[in-house]
């Protein structure tokens, strides 16, 4: 099944065509990566798909249903969740509380129930705590639940972000540079977390600069350059595409290209 599809998706900021006619067709149950140089539109594509931006042109389908123009919370209710490129951690809150923030969309009691402390609220709080604990277990942070988030090492904070996105029980998870700034050991841990998420049936769309991670974990890779699709295919197909190598050589210098393609 195609879980996420875009057709000629486009948005411009001033004169800059940040995303320009991008077509995605992402099969469920896999890791699908989006790569490209800095400023090529990867985060903008996530912002479009997750409802933060409304496209100027084109359409978006989630599990076959037209969702273009829906707000982030409406998309969250349909099973889409994401992380952000920059850490969004409340460092003085506990690790568990940071994850509970992500359960928002499952909470259905209104303000009156809250005011009068109806039993439904207590039940729901319990469900929220349990879901948050389950999400922490999936990223290997169960033992850190009651610690202040600010006391975690960097790699653990990156996993905490993933746990928060998992707490809403998504079917489609967008990860914007989950391994950015991580050392090789931390990147390996993120790799393991992503693999176990996919094993549980969640589709992962991955934006990441670490080419070793991308090449190892992805079923397919979509390459953007200046908001447009440069190429799309299996890791092998993308690796052997000369235009991709040149795009990286031109903009990133040879180091990233070498890691990516050799
Ligand atoms: N809200 C906005 N207003 C104006 N310009 C924007 C906005 N969002 C993105 N852009 C522009 O769109 C282009 C794509 O940016 P985007 O952040 O999507 O790139 P990226 O591929 O995620 O880069 P990086 O790898 O550095 O994270 C850039 O030129 C950026 O300046
Ligand atoms: Mg980005």
Subunit arrangement of the protein = single chain
User: Which value, in Å, is the CA radius of gyration?
Assistant: 19 Å
Helix content: 40-55%
Strand content: 15-25%
H-E string: EEEHEEHEHHHHEHEHEEHHH
Provide a short characterization of the protein structure.
The chain is an alpha/beta fold. Helix content is 40%, strand content 24%.
Short key terms for the protein model shown above:
6-stranded mixed β-sheet, Rossmann fold, 4-stranded antiparallel β-sheet, 10 strands, 2 domains, binds magnesium ion, alpha/beta, 262 residues, binds adenosine-5'-triphosphate
Write the layout of secondary structure elements.
Elements: E1 2-13, E2 16-27, E3 31-35, H1 42-49, E4 57-62, E5 65-66, H2 72-77, E6 80-82, H3 95-100, H4 111-115, H5 119-138, H6 154-166, E7 172-176, H7 184-199, E8 203-207, H8 211-217, E9 220-225, E10 228-233, H9 235-239, H10 242-252, H11 254-261
Parallel strand pairs: 3-8, 3-9, 6-7, 7-8
Antiparallel strand pairs: 1-2, 1-4, 4-5, 9-10
Helix pairs in contact: 5-6, 6-7, 10-11
Magnesium ion (MG) binds at residues 42-43, 85.
